[in-house]
Each structure stands twice: as C-alpha cells, then as structure tokens.
Amino acid sequence: MVASRAIGSLSRFTAFRILRSRGYICRNFTGSSALLTRTHINYGVKGDVAVIRINSPNSKVNTLSKELHSEFMEVMNEIWASDQIRSAVLISSKPGCFIAGADINMLAACKTPQEVTQISQDAQRTFEKLEKSTKPIVAAISGSCLGGGLEVGVPAAFDMMLTGRNIRADRAKKMGLVDQLVEPLGPGLKPPEERTIEYLEEVAVTFAKGLADKKISPKRDKGLVETFYLTELTAYAMTIPFVRQQIYKKVEEKVQKQTKGLYPAPLKIIDVVKTGIEQGSDAGYLSESQKFGELAMTKESKALIGLYHGQVLCKKNKFGAPQKDVKHLAVLGAGLMGAGIAQVSVDKGLKTILKDATLTGLGRGQQQVFKGLNDKVKKKALTSFERDAVFSNLTGQLDYRGFEKADMVIEAVFEDLSLKHKVLKEVEAVIPDHCVFASNTSALPICEIAAVSKRPEKVIGMHYFSPVDKMQLLEIITTEKTSKDTTASAVAVGLKQGKVIIVVKDGPGFYTTRCLAPMMSEVIRILQEGVDPKKLDSLTTSFGFPVGAATLVDEVGVDVANHVAEDLGKTFGERFAGGSLELLQQMVSKGFLGRKSGKGFYIYQEGVKDKNLNSDVDSILASLKMPPKSEVSSDEDIQYRLVTRFVNEAVMCLQEGVLATPAEGDIGAVFGLGFPPCLGGPFRFLDLYGAQKIVDRLRKYEDAYGKQFTPCQLLTDYASSPNKKFYQ
Amino acid sequence: TSSSGQTKSKKTLAKPNVRNIVVVDGVRTAFLQSGTSTFKSGLCKCKSTSVPKEVVDYIIFGTVIQEVKTSNVAREAALGAGFSDKTPAHTVTMACISANQAMTTGVGLIASGQCDVVVAGGVELMSDVPIRHSRKMRKMMLDLNKAKTLGQKLSLISKFRLNFLSPELPAVAEFSTSETMGHSADRLAAAFAVSRLEQDEYALRSHSLAKKAQDEGLLSDIIPFKVPGKDTVTKDNGIRPSSLEQMAKLKPAFIKPYGTVTAANSSFLTDGASAMLIMAEEKALAMGYKPKAYLRDFVYVSQDPKDQLLLGPTYATPKVLEKAGLTMNDIDVYEFHEAFSGQILANFKAMDSDWFAQNYMGRKTKVGAPPLEKFNNWGGSLSLGHPFGATGCRLVMAAANRLRKGGGQYGLVAACAAGGQGHAMIVEAYPK
Q: Is A186 in contact with B187 (Cβ distance < 8 A)?
C-alpha cells in the first residue's frame, strides 16, 4: 500500500515558504519575453515582484514534467536577469495543488536508467539554482506539495528522505518546512477557493517585497534538521566517523526490518545520504541521480506505478452518474461490518440509519462508530465539535422507521442465506421504489439472495473489507439482472465513502474470496505438514504480504474462514481442496474463533503486544498431521505454493469473465487481500516475472499434489506466447 | 441627518389589533475599559428612578459571561436595586445580542398581553470573570468530598500533580470552531478584501464621531454611577481619537504578522450595564409618560459560525425590512454594533453585492449598503465600548435619541453575535 500512501494532500491550511537569499546582484536586463504565452507557467510583475503562476493545462494537478521544467527555468532566468524585478512569488493557479511531484508518465516513458538520471540531474541543477538565487523567492503553497514539488517549494529542506507520510500544514510549520500559514477564507465577493489563492498571493507578495527591502529577515530560529533530528550534541557526535558508522548501521537495520528487503528505494536513499556525508555533496548528488535512475528501472518501481494507475482507474465511476443521488442510507446490522460501513458514510455527510435487532448489538455498533471518530479527534484530524456534528448524521434504531425515505439499504447481517432472505423481504415492504438493496457478503452469491426479491434489478452486492474504515477496497458484485443505474448508484456511494472500487460478476466467492480460498486451503495443508504458524507467518510476510497467513485466519475469524471454505469447497470441488477442513472445524468447536474470541492460532490479550501461540491448537494439528513432501517443502516452495494458487485462481476469474480487467484484479488483490504491493498484483506479477515461470512452478506442485495446481487455460496461453502481456 | 421630508413607504408600522410597544426611557452606566475601574456587585442599580418600582411586572437582563454565584443575575440585581421582591426576573444569554434578546423577550410578553411594564437590560463585567480550576483538579476535589476514610483521601491526594493547578479561563473562542472572534474577523476582512487602511479609517471615524457626540452632550442616556470605594463615573472612557499614522504603527492582534485587525480597529473589553423601561403604549400614556420610541418588527438570523461568524447584519437587514414593509430609503438612522472595523466594512460589501446575495442568501438582489451619513453618527462599539450583554439597549437608545434629535421616523438597529447569529430591529420615533 506504499503507492497509495504517497498520494494525498496538504489540506486545510495553505502555507508559504521563503527561500534563503544570498545578497542581491544587479544584472543586465536582456529584454522581456514575459508576454510570451507558455503552456505550464506564466508570470506577471506586481511592482518589483514577479508572480510566477504554475498551471498545467487539462489536468487537475501540476506535475514536474520536462516541459514544465524547461519553462520554469526560462522564466527564472528572465527574472534573475531583470533589473526591475527584485523578488519573486511562486504559486499554483490550481486550488488544492501546488506540485504533485514528478510526472509519473515521464518516468515511465524512460527506457534506460541514464534517461532518468539525466532528468534527476536537470532537476538537481534547478533546485541548486533556486537555493542560490540572488533574489528572494517566496513559494506560496496551497494544497498538495509532494516529492519534487516539495523540493521546488522548499529547497532549503535539502535532501529529505521521504517516507510517503502526509504532513498537515500546521505540522509543516512546526517542523520548519514552511515559514507562514495562511488559513483558507470563507465566502466573500467571489468563490472562497478563488479568493483564498488570491489572498495567498497578496500575502506572499508582501513578504517577497519585505524580503527584498530587508524589512523581513528570512532567518529561522533553528534549521529544520537542527530542530527535529539533531540536537547540538548529536550534531557534534555526527562528526566522529565511528558514531556515524553506528548510526548508518542502526538506520539500515531498521529500514531492512520495515521493508523486509522487498523495497529497494529506502536502502538506496540511505546509501546516497552516506555518500553525501562521507564524500561531499557533489558526490552525493551524483550518486542520488544515478541511484534514482537505477530504481526507476526496477520491477518494484513498475509494479508500484502500475498500482498507481490502477487506483486512479478504480476511483472513477465508469457507469456514469446515477439517476438519483443517494442522500439517505440505511445499514442493517450493527456488527463490525455494519458499524464500519456506517462510520465511513456519516463522516462523508450521508444521513445514515443503523438498524439492529437488539439494543445491545446496536449500542455496541454506535460505540464503534463513535470510537472511530474519537480516535481521529485524538490524532487531531477532527475537532471534538466536528466529531459530534458527524455523529449526529447517525440514527440508531431497532425498527424500520424512516426506511420510506432511504435511497439505499446496505445489509450486513450474519452470513446466512435464510436470514438474508428474511431481511430482504422485510426491507422491500418498507422502502420506496427507487431504493437500492445492497448485500454485504463475502461469499454468498448475490443471485441467490436476490431470488426472493420483487425487484432483482435493484439488488447488488457490496463487499466491504474489515476494518471498513481502514481497508480501501470495495468489491461490487452485479448479477445478470442488476441494472446499470443500480451499479452506478453503488459505485457512487462507494466513491463517496472513499473506496477504491472493483466491479465484478456474481459467482461463488466473487473475485476476492475466490482467490483467497485456495490459498487458505494451502495454508491449512502447510500447517498440517508441520510448519508452525509463526514460521508460516514469517514466510508470508517476507514474501511481501502485510499480514502473515495464520494471523490472517485469526483476523478474518476461524468460523468465517471455515464457513467460506465449506461453501466454496462444495462448489469448486477438488480444485479448492488441499488442507483438511477438520482443522478449522475443531478449532471452532473449541471456541478458538481468532482475535474476536481472544484465541485462534495465537492468544490475544489486551495490552500484550507480542502474541503467543495458542498451545491448545498443537494437539489438533498433531491429530491431523500429514507427512510433508520434501521436494516441494523448501521455504521458497512454501511461499510459491501459496502465491501460485492465488495467482492461478485470479487468472481463472479473468478467464471466466468474473473480472472485467486485469487492472481491477490487481487492485482487488493488493487493496483487499494484501497481495504484495511490490509485485503489483497477480497480473502485473505475471507480466513482470513471466507467466512461464509461474506455470513451471504450478506443474511442479501439480506433480506432487494434483489438480489443485493445474494451471488454467488462460494462464498457459500467456505462458506459451511470451509477448502476450496482461498490460500492453 | 434628518429626512423627515421624504415620503415613506409606510406612514407608521402600527398594526391593527396588535399592541403598540413603546420605550419610555433607557439609561446606561458609562462604559469603561475593563480593568480601569471595577464595578462591584451593585452594578445593575442603573434604573429609571422616576418609575414607581411596584408597577414593573417583569425584569429581564442579558449577560454573557456568567458569575456562578449569580447565574440569574437579573433577579439578584433587581433585589439589590430595590425593586419589589414580588417582581419576577430572569436572565437571558445570546452572546453580543443578549440585551436585544432581553428587550424582544419583553416585547413578546407585552404583545401577548402577559405584562404591561417590563424592565429590560444587560450587564457585563469583564474585569472580573469566573476562572475555574482545571477539570482534573475539580474531579479530585469532588472525589475528595465523597471519600470517607483517611486512606481513601490520601490515595486521592497522592494522585495530585502540579499541573492540576493551572486554571481554566473562560473561553474567548467559538466553541464549535475553536477560532477566536478577532481571528475570524481578520479572515472575514480578507475574504471581502477590506484593507488595513480602510479599517483604520473607519475606526478613526467612530472615535471622532463619539468624541464629538460626547463633547456636544448627546450621549444623554448615561447616568452617573458611584463605584463603591472609587469615583463616580459619568463618561465613557474608551473614546480616543488618534491619527492614521499612529494607528498604522500597530501590529496585527490576531493573524500575525500579516493580518489587518489590530487593537485600534477592534472593540475593546468593556464593563458596563444598560436598562430600558418598555411598556404597552396605553399603559405609558395612562401613567402620564411621554414615550421616546416604538419598538417594531425584529428578526434573529443565524449562519455558518466558521466563515460567516460576523455577517449577522447582512442577513438580518433585508429580512427585517421585508417584514416591516420598508426599504433602505425609509431608514433615517442606522445603529449597527461595531465589533471590528473589518466586520462592519465586510458587512457593507456583502450587503452591496448581488453575487453574495444570490449565492449565499438566496435572494435575487442585494439590499445595498447603508449610506455612511446616516450610520452610527454618535460613535459605536469601537469607540464607546462593548459590554457584551449591554450593547443592545445602547443601540436602541442611540437610534431613538438620534431620531428625536434629527426629526427622522425610522431607525434600523442591527448586530452580530458569537455563534454566527445576528439580529435586527426597526425603531420608530414616537410622534412629538
């Protein structure tokens, strides 16, 4: 989920930044071309202040492209050469975005590391020039300012190692990243966003003038690094080589642990910083541009860029605008899922009814929503007043009052077909004609739920992932009868809730659960073969899964896993076989339901961080023990047995038309199931590593275990023609 | 400022079958900058001495920052001021329009026939505000009360930390947004592109006009008040006409360092009290009084407390005019509460903008800004001062006295208040 975290914005506050100036030198005025119209950048002069406005055409954001870069240098050279201009303000004309970083397409278009290195060196030179500018430059930043954008706005922040965190403007000020904050304005004589940008510019111009006139000094109490990372003492300590070596070692260890060596960039960044400190900044900059070039060519880079594009795609409603906007939502069932759905709805301003059958159930659900909002207050993302206002969008109740106004009902009752039928009939008796009925289920086929509906065209599946407020994916399931407008409506609601959405065809397990099931079956077999859960967890996380396989079963719930495995096992037969369901059944019968019951493969205790294995499972495992097959039981084989079953099933979903596009398959796998982001999703993985290699693996395991590993037709097709790629 | 010669949309705002309600008189203490002289408890003894106290049916007072011991300050003040203990009294609160709320509550009681004679007013004492112990300290003290054994008490006391002692001041910020009013005013001024110079010029105008009115003895609603242990106060002490150069030197008070709202173009913290005697017209005439003015139509409005906190007058003005069937041309005197220069000027610009009227007020056209020559001619809150709870009565009395002096007929009173609320009322001169 690295890619997703790198995208975000400085919200709420606008800010500006003064670049350090180093004296003022008069230069000859070489004739103005300020009137030349440029595509990305224009500038005007207010008194003796040049106002440089960035505005990339036909795009919601400004990105650092080659064109923007060269225009920017042109303009800066004019400004530096002009006698009339004594200072400059750099501002974006787009509300909500300064510069969103480097143009991903520009990087993706590069064929060799040298090309990328060249781009990086050009940018370095620009940043250096800005830093050494003879005239003060004020960067007026409103909205997102990422990566290279941050370097343009804040060169004095020199070589930041970006971890992809979002920094709010007020925090940026505290860190010394920006010098002043300008708060957004409300309504005046024109739209607030427009006037706010204007005001930001006015204030920035005053500052630029003040700096040029030496009325304001750009000095800060402390530099960024001094304030935040190093005290004077540590600054001194850093001059001792031995201490430095220890620090590098420590940082490397920490990064190695966090990335598990799967993401090459952080380690290279440390390398670059090391070079810079040990061999001087020129060597550091050279190393930076070279390493950047190398990184851009890695599979990991391509995988993450692919995910970025996929995510952009899955944030659009390709079904168009629904006929009627959903304003009133009702959620049935105040369990973990129902309350989670309610939470992500009320905080986007949807009036939401949360209905449960019992007062205790309802109270628990309401408390969950409140806690979710209150946690945001603790993190200062919300004020307590805003929390209360948002919470007032929620109505908790035990009956169907108010359902006559509902535009959409999402049911999240227990996964039991007859119960789902019962609530569907009850709901249809009270809702208006246009109201959509959505079912949140992870495995029950929607057409079976819709079988008792009077209006099956209004029935759809909305499969959320737990915890709903954290997991970004929403899987929407359409049946043959679901109307296009119903789908459009469900996608619109999902987007409003902030979800990344894939739309798949109905079928047992849809897409996500169906991919997970065979992998889970393999998990059980591996456990039965004597690999202990801790070891299995470490094998899966070191492959890039965010959560270990055994822990995942505990998180999902052993009973739920068992339920799904039984259901899908019946439908898909031998292909989903592998481990014995006995294991899960026995665990359920002993009450080991996973985290929710305090015991599963692990023991969960409040306040205890390192969880211990549940030794009571040992006896169950012992009774179900199977002999491992040594030819397919190396650590790597175990990892690939899990991943290849997953990937094979994903391709099968595409083959059967459950998936419309490989991109949705990748987004669903990464954002819903934690498929390793560094691999980009099952389809990107096949493209980057070669379908043939995966088919070879499958054949090897097929020899050992049989049909469960037989590669599907589409996969062998791709393997046999190496030029065929899922992404062209 | 007389425009009595003009033809009005309506000859009078009297309505058939509705009681006419009149202001017999109104008085106030001089308004004092907080901390310059402390009124003690007898603050609200300001009263229309000529009124036989027993004829008063009801007393209503507005206040904002309440003293815990006198949460119904109206009753305590009435008793202390020698009103009959048979006269009920209650306290209302609505931020800067608390006194307006007291008056209109009285109007409601008289119009519905419940009362004939009401004393309405307001009081604010910023020199002494309740300062509380911190929540942790309060909790510990309350728990200590309940603790029975010494052991329990000791274990509670052992939890004491020094930071429990840091006190809680009454919030000066909006509860809903945590933004102070001055900060909001600065943003409002910026949103309407009101410059620092415009604000300073307006503030200077307010102080100059107040000084002139004071010198000419026009502020006749002030009654001398003896502060126990100190001198008798007779004059507002915040009126200080300065020069634009002097004012330009001040640093911004809220948005630093580039904001435009300064101490010089804001109203200051003020102590003061005001009161008004309102009656049914027939009762006043029967008692032989010569009323000063009628209280006519009024409205309350509210809007977004974040970005439109101080735009109450903009919303209230067209609404009250429509209700009364008048236009801006009918108004002879305007008395608006001046919280900040920037706030008044932003309201002017909003009232004069078709774009704002259409996009935010749901109106087809603008109402128009009040002509400056009819506006706050005897000074305003910027110069006279602004005791939160007491300003409303001062506005109405200023409007009534200005109408009498200049021979006009209709006055429009308007004010903004914390919480994003606002108020406007039409005052009609009593025929001489």
A: yes
